[in-house]
TrEMBL record:
<feature type="region of interest" description="Disordered">
    <location>
        <begin position="1"/>
        <end position="71"/>
    </location>
</feature>
<feature type="compositionally biased region" description="Basic and acidic residues">
    <location>
        <begin position="1"/>
        <end position="30"/>
    </location>
</feature>
<feature type="compositionally biased region" description="Pro residues">
    <location>
        <begin position="60"/>
        <end position="71"/>
    </location>
</feature>
<protein>
    <submittedName>
        <fullName>Antitoxin</fullName>
    </submittedName>
</protein>
<dbReference type="InterPro" id="IPR028037">
    <property type="entry name" value="Antitoxin_Rv0909/MT0933"/>
</dbReference>
<dbReference type="Pfam" id="PF14013">
    <property type="entry name" value="MT0933_antitox"/>
</dbReference>
């Protein structure tokens, strides 16, 4: 059983809280790096949220469009 499988089991039912934590951690990293790596941080946040099952959206909110491609 991988670490992500264990985390998913622990966070089951708390995906929104996990998503908020991922956002908070990304904001912290952006602050410490003065936004220099913000595109990388955003990509990492999205992939981590996908792995953990949290989208950060409430069930009634419309889906958000994907971010524009990076050049």
């Amino acid at each position: 059983m991988s670490v992500f499988d264990k985390l998913k089991g622990m966070l089951k039912g708390h995906e929104d809280q996990a998503s908020k934590g991922v956002d908070k951690a990304g904001d912290y990293v952006d602050g410490k790096t003065q936004g220099k790596y913000s595109s990388h941080v955003d990509t990492g946040q999205a992939k981590l949220k996908e792995q953990l099952g949290g989208t950060g959206q409430t069930p009634d909110s419309p889906p958000q469009p994907p971010p524009p491609p990076q050049q």
